[in-house]
Specification:
Elements lengths: L6 H33 L8 H21 L3 H23 L18 H30 L12
Helix pairs in contact: 1-2, 1-4, 2-3, 3-4
Amino acid sequence: MNVPVRSGARGRSLALRSLTAVALLIDAGVHLHLAPGYQAGSPQGIGQGTLFLLESAAAALAALAVLVRGSRTAYAFALLVALSAFAAVVFYRYVDLPAFGPFPAMYEPVWYFEKTVSAIAEGAGVVLAGIGLAWTRRAGQRSPAGPAVGRRPA
């Protein structure tokens, strides 16, 4: 039995996916923009600029996954990316952790425009991806037990 998706639910899903992706893309853009200036402190090895580029790539990939799929896995990945970025920016704002292993010391006790925009986008990404994860979880619990009519069983 097919369970029809109401147009209102589809619209909310598309809006949530879009907003989550926008938050992640803002995060990606800010990190991509700032990366070259932060790599100068560690031209070899894993510098903060390299970490910024990795964060940018992860956020862009998560945004794409949420937009294209909108699945529980996509929202979980988006939540993980946004939460890790938000936790890092807040942690390194207030805690002076020295370099360890190949990772540089990233303490930066100031807030400036790009950092603030990134933190807000990451926080919004955490909330939006969390809502998306909860919605997709609930939708999965409401689906019928058997395969949908017209679909072959997996």
